[in-house]
Amino acid sequence: MMKTQVNTQLLAAISSEQQHIERATPGSVSVPGLKCMKTFNPLITPELMENALKTKTFGRSKAFSPNLSFAVDMVGSPATAFPETSYTQQEVGNILDIKDPVTWKLLSAPHIKKRHLYLPPAIGGDQPRQPTPSQRNATFMKGLDDIGVKAVEAALSDTKTDIKEIDMLVTVTSTGLALPGVSGILIRKLPFRGDVLRSDIVGMGCNGGASGLRAIATQLGHMASIRGKECKALLLCCEVNSAYFVNRDGNIGDGVVNSLFGDGDVASILAASPFGSNFAIPGSPSCVSAGADPRPPKISLLDFQSITIPEYFEDMSYNMDEQSQLPFFKLSKRIPMAVGNSVEIPVRELLDRHGLAPADVCQWVVHGGGKSVMQLVAKNLGLDHDKDLRHTKSVLRDYGNISSGSFLVSLQRLLAEAQEDLDVLQTGDVVALIAMGPGATIEVILGVVTAAAK
């Protein structure tokens, strides 16, 4: 696939010219010959553009040239935390005392090898078959205290970010309920500033992490503009799916859930400047690593698109079992078709807005909703299932579907790969991130690599 990249030659010319002039009044600049871009970073004045065009020689580019004036940067790579204990699918079936042969067939499928879970000891003796609601909530709180805090601390440490620098805290979960919210509990446990702006996204399911990124991206840039300085946000996806495992004899829906979902938390830090994002010119500080600790590529989030298909609302939802009075997650066999066959709609709407096509996307970061979902997504977007969804497949294999944070684990693996192989993500590459969940809802994010790994 030929890579579609931004016109970094023009940006390098502008950066070189910018070093020789004083900062001017922010303004909007029309750029001749660039199909998609209407304005550059507000710091780029008409005089600067004119001088750059005069002093540098290059042809008019048809390459993707995004307006990064309102883009938000992902700082470093997402950080993950999982329960210490992992189980094979066979072990999960034994511990949950699975009797249903169809569920055992699901557990025997090769696309999931193991999952990290907070499971009780194997059922036996006087132990009740189903945990009580209070026990389920205690399992969620245990996960928040354990892997939730670990993921946040790892994100701060990996990016060398002081917790006092965080201006916004957004948490996402669909597997627990807490007041004053997961974000409030985190502030009590960790030394965030008291004036940190906090939001809790609850009940959006597997697309919740992408919804959280969208919420941050649409608020953080505004905050940075108002305050006149860089602002940072922290996103935490906290999912303890095992807290809601229900095992009703002969219920295929329970079997699907119990064989698919895993526990795991993901934290990511984002930053916004009053002037938007910018491309790192080779040799600049943001492109240079210190010592033997290479930086991952910097991805800037440019635009978002979503679609909700209410016809499938009942096919993926929490419900209450009348007999046991326990909540359970319903996941019908129509869901792979619903999201797999609809994913092209928001993807093409988002790409069309920027003059792009699926073939222009260099890397795909897709939520691992299950084997059938991945196959249909690949088919409808014209992707190579093994190549383009390699990290989606590996995350599902190693952890199962961890709901809202799954696609961020895939992104973590892509960024790690790019540090080993510099051809994987180069400055100017287009990246698409996709997550899907209840509603049925599909979220798509358009990102651009604004600094390659070094």
TrEMBL record:
The keyword Amino-acid biosynthesis does not apply. Residues 107-274 form the Chalcone/stilbene synthase N-terminal domain. Keywords: Acyltransferase, Transferase. InterPro entries: Chalcone/stilbene_synt_C (IPR012328), Chalcone/stilbene_synt_N (IPR001099), Chalcone/stilbene_synthase_AS (IPR018088), Polyketide_synthase_type-III (IPR011141), Thiolase-like (IPR016039). Gene3D superfamilies: 3.40.47.10. SUPFAM superfamilies: Thiolase-like. Signal peptide: none annotated. PROSITE patterns: CHALCONE_SYNTH. Residues 329-446 form the Chalcone/stilbene synthase C-terminal domain. The keyword Ribosomal protein does not apply. One of its GO terms (molecular function) is acyltransferase activity, transferring groups other than amino-acyl groups. One of its GO terms (biological process) is polyketide biosynthetic process. It holds the Pfam family Chal_sti_synt_C. Belongs to the thiolase-like superfamily. Chalcone/stilbene synthases family. This is Chalcone synthase A.
